[in-house]
Design goal:
Blueprint lengths: L1 H67 L9 H14 L3 E7 L5 E3 L16 H16 L3 H14 L3 H17 L3 H14 L11 H12 L5 H16 L9 H14 L5 H33 L7 E2 L4 E4 L8 E6 L6 E6 H9 L11 E6 L12 E5 L8 E6 L4 H71 L6 H33 L7 E4 H11 L1 H6 L3 E6 L4 E4 L1 H18 L5 E8 L3 E8 L31 H11 L3 E6 L5 E8 L6
Parallel strand pairs: 11-13
Antiparallel strand pairs: 1-2, 1-6, 3-4, 4-5, 5-6, 7-9, 8-9, 10-12, 13-14, 14-16, 15-16
Helix pairs in contact: 1-11, 1-12, 3-4, 4-5, 5-6, 5-7, 6-7, 6-8, 7-9, 8-10, 9-10, 12-13, 13-17, 14-16, 16-17
Amino acid sequence: MNQKLKPASRLTIIFILAVVISGSILTWFSINSISNLKELTERRVTEEQRELAAKFSLVMQNKIETVTGGFKNEISPPGLLKDSLIKTTSENNFITLPFILKNNGSFLYPNFMGLSENMTLPKFSSRYISAFKNGEENEFARNNLKTAKKHYLSCLSFSKNANDSVKALNALGRVSVKLKEPEIAIGYYKHIVLDYFNISGSDGLLYVYYAIPQLVKISNSDNCDEILVLFEFCLEKMETGFIPLNFGTKELLALVIKWTQENSFISTEKLAHVNKLEQKINKQLQFIDEYKNSMLELMKKESPDNYLNVNNDFRVINSYSGNSQKLLLVNTNLENPVGFLIDGIKLFDSVLNQGLQSVFEFDYKIEFLPGYPSNANEKSLIYTAQMNPYFPGQMMQIKLNDENLINDFIKRRSWIYGIATALLLVALSLGVALIVRDIAREKQIARLQSDFISNVTHELKTPLTSIYMFAESLLLKRVKKETDKDEYLSIILKESERLKRMINNILEFSKMEKGKPEYHFVSSNLASIINASIHQFDYWFEKENFEVLAEMDENIFAEVDPEKMKQAISNLLSNALKYSTITKKIFIRLFKTSNNIHIEVEDQGIGIPENQLSQIFEKFYRVDQKENISGTGLGLTVVKEIIEAHKGKISVESKLGGGSKFSITLNRQTEKV
């Protein structure tokens, strides 16, 4: 038996060494990874920062080129071009202002016109001139307002074109204000605002610019809403370029805003609308004031290639105001050059809001820098790069959102590696321990098998010797008395039954090991089965002077295999017989409770040590005892298998030197009445 174990033991040792060596290598690599983790993590952060910067710059450039892409070719007429620019601006909040230039560099949109710009004096008929002159003489020299009004009305009838009409309407409105006829005056000025908003007088000033102050002057709580509608109309036309802006626009806007603030009965919604228009127009005025010289210089240059060209159409014009966070793009290749003023901060924020960081492992903070920071290279894990080709000299800075993230990350990973390594070592140790335990168990089983063969040989030899001896005596006719012959034959029969029980146990165990035990369940009287088992041992009980006390309910029936149940009871009685060496008394009980049927076999023999109770049902196991009582170590194993096949349970209570009690519990569901 030992010779057979040696090759297996060698293979086991080789397996253990392989597991330990591979585990040690993995542990070494884990420890080495922990030591290099900081360097690897910082390298990973730098790679992600570089990738994020490139991605950020590309998205920013794509946004700009998406805006400019629709204006690389001619769009005619200028009105349609203006509408396209305004629509594009409304779709991109980072565009501060779109604009259209004339060939000389002046602005076509926003529409700005100086007082002396492109002045063509209108021509009036002699009758018109005479009537208007008489009206002015009566209005200003004689203060005869009603007569003046009549002359202005005649001018209106002499009008042949819009210039004639708007000049007469303006004079009529002025006289009506002086006559304190506000409703009539509003009618004249309303006509000017709605129908002649883009016509100017001989001094170059639009008539609508005269109308607005006069409307403010005659406003009251009754006509406020009507006047507000006219103001909104004027501001909307200014913002969209239909009413040209001039040097007096800012003052006019201030007058309108002051008027809206003083009239508390104007709704919040209307007030917000007027304020928004005022802000847009002021933004246009500020833009014109800031960039008009730049545009004039750009269009006068013989070679506009001196300006930065990013995509072969739009050129980057640096702001002369020094505000490097603004980007001015102009396409000078068109008949009417177009461009955009882009707010770098808003563009930057719009890219930030696109969630570019979602694919990265770490969380970063991206900042817009007005220039290159002097200490950028001195700070670790802070990446600085040019923001975009459209923003030369403008930098973005990328750093970890949490400066302690690296240390926390390394600490967390170190814990993970440490715990994983510890678990690996524990698993290896546990695996080795289990293997060693299994080896020990296999050796124990091998030893028990060896003892089993020895015990079976001895157990079989004893009854065979008795049978042989008594049979030989009878055959040789050494026994003369009939009573002695009967006794010899009885001994031969009992020893044969004993031999049969041992063989049955061995056969039953063999079937158990193969997983092929056979059971035939029938409704049976359990008391009859137990009595039959007891009668098998009558000879031995009498011979060894045993007292057997049975307390049984005679009317308990159950679905059982009678032969297997008889074998189980017989094995328990055999054990009680063998291990009761001093007090030879056996108790057998059969009773039922509300849920179960109980069978108990109790002796007052040598008992079982407490530390061995859990092992007595294992195959080949025999309790250590000084009495050296023989046995195969299969009896209780067979009992346990039979009872469990009946969906029952077997338990034992024992005390060393105080006997043992084996209890069988069957579920009453097997009971049959």
